[in-house]
Design goal:
The chain has 5 helices and 10 strands, in the order H-E-H-E-E-H-E-E-E-E-E-E-E-H-H. With about 270 residues, it is α+β, with helices and mostly antiparallel strands. The protein has a 7-stranded antiparallel β-sheet, covered by helices on one side. The chain has a 3-stranded antiparallel β-sheet with strand order 7-6-9, with no helix packed on it.
Length: about 270
């Protein structure tokens, strides 16, 4: 893939400049000047583009090696989170797969300013207690200017919607997105079949001057950061839900509520599939 296939655009993201009614924004959680200063810092040096599918992300040999590595994992050794009802964890992934992902994104974006924030492997399947996976409408609060969403395996499709585009992938295809700036979700699971499953690998990539490099990951739980994120949702989430509701093409969405969860609910070991 070459850089010509990248469509640069900034008009669809959850940014103040794109708000359709700036004069009537309710600054409920944060004053305007502080918000704009933080948004500017969040966007600094970021490249904005239309989400896209990348075919054959790894070579056939590399992808087979990755599949074999993942097939050797036991769900009992992977943390389960009730936040989105899935097994999700770092899995001791060989460094070569991380390096290849970063190199590919650098090539696609035409910049060397791409670094690993973190990666996660995710296994989606109904649990023994009947919990179904879901991915609610959201903007990421964790560090990730760019995200490589790799379809690793499974026996079903599970489409992802990024702003106004729905993507259905095959194994070794990637959807390259900007999760900190663009609303995204997956269609409802809609299956009681306990044998249905979907596997993905996510590389959350950042820039050299990203906020988590400047202030540390603890900044993510600071009062200032949380106020910024809540103000952003207050400004943009209803607008986005209206866009999806009015669409004739996008699938239904799920809204999540993790307010009743405790920290231990997001890092459970020994959870079994149904």
């Amino acid at each position: 893939m070459n850089n010509k296939e990248l469509i640069l655009q900034k008009s669809k993201f959850a940014l103040y400049e794109n708000h359709p009614n700036k004069d009537n924004i309710d600054w409920l959680h944060m004053d305007k000047d502080t918000y704009l200063a933080m948004e500017k810092e969040f966007c600094e040096d970021a490249i904005f583009f239309e989400p896209l599918i990348i075919e054959n992300f790894y070579s056939d040999e590399e992808f087979l090696e990755l599949k074999n590595f993942i097939s050797g994992l036991s769900l009992s050794q992977i943390a389960y989170t009730k936040q989105m009802n899935k097994w999700e964890d770092q899995i001791g992934l060989p460094q070569k797969f991380i390096d290849i992902a970063i190199a590919k994104v650098k090539e696609i974006l035409g910049t060397d300013d791409v670094e690993l924030g973190y990666y996660l492997y995710a296994h989606h399947q109904m649990t023994k207690e009947g919990r179904q996976p879901f991915l609610q409408v959201h903007l990421d609060w964790s560090p990730g200017t760019y995200m490589v969403d790799l379809h690793v395996g499974g026996n079903r499709d599970w489409s992802i919607v990024v702003h106004d585009k729905e993507f259905i992938t095959k194994e070794n295809q990637v959807v390259l997105v900007q999760p900190e700036f663009d609303f995204h979700y997956r269609e409802p699971w809609n299956s009681d079949d306990p044998n249905m499953y979907y596997q993905a690998l996510f590389f959350h990539l950042t820039r050299k001057n990203h906020w988590h490099k400047k202030y540390g990951i603890e900044y993510q739980v600071s009062d200032l950061f949380l106020k910024f994120q809540h103000q952003r949702l207050h400004m943009f989430q209803d607008l986005y839900l209206n866009l999806v509701d009015e669409s004739q093409e996008l699938p239904a969405y799920v809204l999540g509520d993790d307010s009743s969860l405790v920290s231990g609910d997001k890092d459970l070991l020994g959870v079994e599939a149904k």
